[in-house]
Amino acid sequence: MNELRPGEIVTLSVYRTTPLGYILTNEAAEEVFLHRNEATRELAEDEEVDVFLYIDQKSRLTATMAMPKIQEGTYEWLEVVDVKRRMGAFVNIGTNKDLLIAASDLPLYEDSWPQVGDRLYCSMRITHRGMMYGRLATDDIMKDRMTPAPRELFNRDLEGIVYRLLKVGTYIVTDEGYVGFVHETERKEEPRLGERVKARVINVKDDGTLNLSLLGRKQESMGGDAEQLYEYMESRGGAMPFWDKSYPEDIRERFNMSKAAFKRALGQLMKEDKVYQEEGWTYFKGK
């Protein structure tokens, strides 16, 4: 019989009881301790019981009757229950021992790390020393398990969870199992890993994946963009060195919006007779 190893679910027999719990054994006479706090019911000697094995805080192999939601090779959505700087994020796997997803497996900047209550799709990995860590699902894993999106989803609003962050954009898996990509130009700010977001379908690709946008529709976002420009001008005393002929890259850098969105917002302010343009600048009326 193989030796007892952490990360496995095994069937063992109760060899004897102690005041603190139970000594369990296998056919090879290996022993492992099951604390009463880790037992879901009273056990009798010689009774067989299924347990999950792990390394405790004192580096001892120990057992629990609480079954984990994941093991090596299996994946599940798990809730983030704690986040520690420089260490990483802890997820609840259904046992008393939460699983750490190391900082090295999370985004470079901690502002993009998940927060408590966010959810991550991950598996378990066991080190050669028997320590258990969380492993985030790769893009290949997510796409292998995705549901192909139908064409009629175009322009629909969907909700989902961010599972991958790149400089050029954000990957999301929706509640229906569709995989989508949000280009950096289709978001005002980068969402964090594990965050739940609402996105609009702007393209259904031939491979069944989606292109998504976190920006509002034109009629929805115009008010917010116009307000942003107005507040910016207000902070500068009623003027800004931008107008409808400014370079798109300058607009993107300052306001994080496309030139088309900028012109719509500026046009709204002009239509409402709040601002006017002159020689590369935009001014409040009356300023």
Word description of this protein:
By secondary structure, the protein is of the alpha+beta class. It has four domains: 9-64, OB fold (Dihydrolipoamide Acetyltransferase, E2P), CATH 2.40.50.330; 76-137, Nucleic acid-binding proteins (OB fold (Dihydrolipoamide Acetyltransferase, E2P), Beta Barrel); 147-213, Beta Barrel (OB fold (Dihydrolipoamide Acetyltransferase, E2P)), CATH 2.40.50; 218-284, Orthogonal Bundle (Arc Repressor Mutant, subunit A), CATH 1.10.10.10. The chain is 16% helix and 37% strand. It has helices spanning 139-144, 218-235, 248-255, 259-271, and strands spanning 9-17, 21-25, 31-35, 48-55, 61-64, 76-84, 88-91, 99-102, 119-126, 132-136, 157-166, 169-174, 179-183, 196-204, 210-213, 239-240, 275-278, 281-284. Strand 7 (88-91) and strand 8 (99-102) form a beta hairpin. The longest helix has 18 residues, at 218-235. The chain starts with 8 loop residues before the first strand and ends with a strand.
